[in-house]
Amino acid sequence: MSDTTTTAQASSPTAEAPEQRPGRRLRLPGRGRKDGGGGGNQLFRNAYALMLNTGISAVLGLGYWLVAARYYSDTAVGQGSAAIAAMKLLAGLTAVTLTGALARFIPVAGRATGRLIFRTYAGSSVVVALAAVVFLLTLNAWGPSYRFLHGPLNGLGFILAVVAWSLLTLQDGVLTGLRSALWVPVGNTVFSAVKLALLVGLAAAIPTTGVFVSWVAAIALSVVPLGLLVFRRLVPRHIKATEERAKPPTLKEVGRFLAGDYTGSLFSLAVVYLVPVIVASQVSSSDNAYFYITTTIGGTVNLLAINMGASLTVEG
């Protein structure tokens, strides 16, 4: 009996001290673990930056069109918005459809990153420039809202605007693929602020075309600095960080990806950008002003899901 009692007394401290497990700590989305796995952290960082860009676009875009309605006539706003809609549609033939490919293949391109970006820029510029020429040659079929684009000077300006917008749109995909999406809202804020200032400044000088000119001039002032940032700083840094594990895609891999992604993007392009162009060709410039402002504000919400998807493409 003594032995039994002793054994029970010796084992009781252990039984009375249950094992204490460390409690689970609540982590906010985007706060990665400290074990070197930064994929999730980078995923949310890019996604938040792109969604911030959407918010900035919505607020400053609304301000832009409110100022346009204040300083310009309904006809001028309708003509300017019609030209902007056509510019976005033509530039989107390559820009919108290739942005996903850039976000997909830049992270694994390694030393071929610079060549991939440059060739995409060059090919896109040629295609959209030709598309803009075809549009101008058929200008009479697109209604009175596009009449002000007649003439060699206005036509050349429109072609350059289409090419510049294509490059500016592609740069969003490039910055996302380089895991530098924080630069996207920065560039967009500069672009939006510049075009807003130009909109007010040009109201008295060119009251008919000031809306479109302010947009085009702001594009030019945004494309060049971002391009220098990409090729001189971000691409070399990306190559240095990824060259050891990079696996540049083959033409077959790129083609297989584009076969599905490009086709799907064309349908999205038609819904978002073709409809405003068709409406502008069927109604008066004054009526188009009201339609375009409304559809632009409403369409901004759709960009939230698109931008989150772009970040998932890079990190997934």
Structural features, described:
This protein has 11 helices and no strands. With 316 residues, the protein is mainly alpha-helical. 77% of the residues lie in helices and 0% in strands. The longest helix has 33 residues, at 39-71. It is globular, with a radius of gyration of 26 Å. Helix 2 (39-71) packs antiparallel against helix 11, helix 3 (74-92) packs antiparallel against helix 9 (251-282) and helix 7 runs antiparallel to helix 8 (210-242). The model is unreliable at 1-15 and 23-39 (pLDDT under 50). The chain has one domain.
Annotate the secondary structure layout.
Elements: H1 2-16, H2 39-71, H3 74-92, H4 95-105, H5 113-137, H6 152-177, H7 183-201, H8 210-242, H9 251-282, H10 285-299, H11 302-315
Helix pairs in contact: 2-7, 2-11, 3-5, 3-6, 3-8, 3-9, 3-10, 4-6, 4-9, 4-11, 5-6, 6-8, 7-8, 9-10
- On the 0-100 scale, what is the average pLDDT? 82
The helix/strand order is: HHHHHHHHHHH
* Coarse structural class: mainly alpha
The termini sit apart by 66 Å
* Structural domain tally: 1
What is the beta-strand fraction? Answer: under 5%
- Low-pLDDT residue intervals, each spanning 5 or more residues: 1-15, 23-39
Anisotropy-based shape:
globular
Largest sheet: number of strands, sense, barrel closure: none
Number of helices: 11
Query: Helix share of residues?
Result: over 70%
Cα Rg: 26 Å
How many β-strand stretches? 0
